[in-house]
Amino acid sequence: MNNLSNKYRLSIYSEISELSKDKVYIVKSSLDDKIYIKKILDPKKYDIYNKLRNISSSNIPKIYEIMKFENKLIVIEEYINGCSLNEILVEFKTLPESKVIKYALDLSDILYTLHSCDPPIIHRDIKPSNLMINNDGFLKLIDFDISRTHKTSESSDTNILGTYGYAAPEQFGFNQSDARTDIYSLGVTMNMLLVGKLPVNGIYEGNLSSVISKCIQLDPEQRFQNVNELKLTILKKSNEFKNKGKMSRYYTKFKMPGFRSRKLLFKIISSIWYVFLTLALFGFFTEDPSFQNRVLDVIMVGFLFTLTLFYGNFNNVKSKLPLVKSRRLFVKFIGYVFYTLLLLIISMIFMPE
Q: What CATH number matches the domain at 2-78, 3.30.930.10, 3.30.200.20, 3.40.1280.10, 3.40.630.30?
């Protein structure tokens, strides 16, 4: 009777396309016309998927149906409309550190949920192709087909499974997989996202370098011992990253005109100009050191320096002034003429008679 019931439930889902030979299909339900994923798995995976069905998380695919049919396990799960981080890497080669920090924190939260199960669920295959970004920008961890529950009675994994380069040493039978196994793979994944390489081919040298290095230690005892410890460290690095960014923007904002450019020629010309203004301020070019001439020097240098700040857009001043912030070229031109004349008039007012 149960077999007939499962057969009927399966008949509801018509196959649209095959994603993996004899294993994963995109299907459509005749009940609601929605798209789902159908997986054909080993019946031994029933416990894992049954646990996943009872986990409430927006970061893992929702499990809708679990059926045992003809010595196979059939799973119907959420179809994620989006793309994998691997596909994003193919297009962009690497991702910025700020984005990788966000994904690492999201993944830490997912793993915390999985590792908190009783017994803990170990994914064992974390890699960019198993991390989906849906159309709303949410990260989803997929493909639990080689996941297992941690068993305290076993000293090593009985099945050697995982992806080369991402799999921790214990997945090759040296020890039993545990939470630190997923932490190892997360570290490798971060490195791949940041530099487009596995750690054996080059470790990232930026802000997350020490985090990655600790994640991928061969000895599990030398890694982060749980994802909370990892997450706290990433958050600390994230704050350092933000503070560096703020300081960098602060210094860029208040850099003198000419020194914001990356071109050496501009910097040389600017240096000569500022040296000239400094020498003029101290009367280097004035033969008569009288008080009147000294005041004249100060006013002229003040006029030229203010004009430099204005035309050099110091502290983004042009975006705050009427006329010059206009997008119309003619209005801008009028603005430049107006403010130049205004500065000149103000300078002349203070000129000694």
A: 3.30.200.20
Q: 269-288 pLDDT, tens per residue?
A: 888 998 988 888 888 888 77
**Digit-coded pLDDT (tens) for 295-346:** 888 888 888 988 888 888 877 777 778 888 776 888 888 988 998 999 889 9
Q: Find out whether 79 and 36 touch, Cβ atoms under 8 Å.
A: yes
Kindly report, residue by residue over 216-258, the tens digit of the pLDDT.
999 999 999 999 999 999 988 877 655 554 444 445 556 778 7
In the chain, domain spans:
2-78, 82-251, 264-349
Are 44 and 62 in contact, with CB atoms under 8 Å apart?
no
Say whether pTM exceeds 0.70.
no
Q: Which of 121, 133, 142 is nearest to 47 (CA)?
A: 121
Is the Cβ–Cβ distance between 336 and 318 less than 8 Å? no
The distance from CA 195 to its chain's CA centroid, rounded to whole angstroms, is 12
Question: What class has domain 82-251?
Answer: mainly alpha
Helix (H), strand (E), coil (C) string for the chain: CHHHHHHHHHHCEEEEEEEECCCEEEEEECCCCCEEEEEEECHHHHHHHHHHHCCCCCCCCCEEEEEEECCEEEEEEECCCEEEHHHHHHHHCCCCHHHHHHHHHHHHHHHHHHHCCCCCEECCCCCHHHEEEECCCCEEECCCCCCEECCCCCCCCCCCCCCCCCCCHHHHCCCCCCHHHHHHHHHHHHHHHHHCCCHHHCCCCCCCHHHHHHHCCCCHHHCCCCHHHHHHHHHHHHHHHHHHHHHHHHHHHCCCCCCCCCCHHHHHHHHHHHHHHHHHHCCCCCCCCCHHHHHHHHHHHHHHHHHHHHHCCHHHHHHCCCCCCCCCHHHHHHHHHHHHHHHHHHHHHCCCC
Question: ∠ at Cα 165 (159, 170), nearest 5°?
Answer: 40
2-78 and 82-251 in the same fold: no
